[in-house]
Amino acid sequence: MEIVILPSAAEVGRVAASVVAEVVVRKPEAVLGLATGSSPLAIYEELARRADAGELDFSRVRGFALDEYVGLDYGHPESYHAVIDRTVTRPLGLAPALVAVPDGFAADLAAACAAYEAAIDAAGGIDVQILGIGGNGHIGFNEPTSSLASRTRIKTLTPKTREDNARFFDSPEAVPTHCVTQGLGTILRARRLVLVAQGENKAEAIAAAVEGPLSASCPASVLQLHEHATVIIDEAAASRLRNADYYRYTWANKPAWQRY
Prior knowledge:
alpha/beta, EC 3.5.99.6, glucosamine-6-phosphate deaminase activity, 3-stranded antiparallel beta sheet, carbohydrate metabolism, Glucosamine-6-phosphate deaminase, allosteric enzyme
């Protein structure tokens, strides 16, 4: 993995947005994998700024969200249908018909998961997958012990994840217990992975993902298997990395033409 340590959360968003922008400029009909949560928001805000300035055109870009709650009405402000529309589709100017979110209301959830995998394949696969990371090392809603080869499926959310997400709901009890999520194997099929994290509360998970063993106990460690994964973090999120000085040195000495 390429590890980029930056001085601020804003800079994390700017550099990660540049990775995505390079793909969209090179391929106007690019397919983006869209993460929700607080970590990627700075990416979307920077991409929206560039779109507003006429620097980027997302009108032909397709998007596939990572996950969705099971049984949460799509009109609920915290359903990922609503979140993706509010934070990505409208600000970036994506065509709503080209943005897909897993179906958490399907009568046959297993069939809906298989159909979502097929839709990604039919679109030609994901060109760049945006990722955040949970405090327990989850990516998407692939909780610890998830199969490293897993595909889009139904998952039970851990108490820790439900606790972390309770701030978005009226009460902890209102957080759904299940979700539909792209699997770790699905994520690994993307041509490019970009994971962002900010803050001390993500430091332990980042250290496990980047420098720990490849393990289902830390689902994000699966990025170690990908040939083109970039982890972009601020100093606080990097605070547990043993080799942080090397990562800083590598970035500082990267040729300007290779930077994002």
